[in-house]
Amino acid sequence: MIKNELTEYAELFTSEESPVLRELREHCYAHYSDSSMLSGHVQGRILALLSKMIRPKLVVEIGTYLGYSALCFAEGLAVGGKVITLDIQEETNRVAKSFVERTEYKNVIDFRLGEAKDLIPEIKDPIDLVFIDADKSNYSLYYDLVFEKVRPGGFIIADNVLWSGRVLNEEKDEDTQALHDFNQKIQSDPRVTNALLPIRDGLMVVCKK
To answer: What pLDDT does residue 36 have?
Structure first.
């Protein structure tokens, strides 16, 4: 919802992504009709910076897509840390793996294929950072499934919470209503502090007390 000129200006004054990330982004825009699902340059640098501030030992990402955001989070991992990234799409997972294999992070990103609601309970270690960027109707479910696994002081970040402004519509389709309900759920949760950042399509940043 930010004008293109301001987005371009922001990109001019944002650190460059790595050559592999740039190639991955360009590959996505050239070959995928749903390229808006990719985090992109500015948001990717923000995710990398957040990771570098948190220094997580364990990141759990719900929704891999082409692996762009997983690579961004990997930049800030503590020594010995890892990213577990969950997805159901075999084809995009293969592409993600092919790009990750070309980076220094190939041994710290753990790809797991399957339904997130089935895979999340298998994660036993305390989580420092969760990134929710998958099917919108299940955001609240994923939040509930990961919450007790997140350490006190850990973070949950959810993407697309503004949904191209559709959360403001009086008449909401299923996904829009689910995102609006999710935003309301976070706002009323006394166990967290939170801020909805109007960056790109909206990032809800949540810190567990």
So the answer is: 82
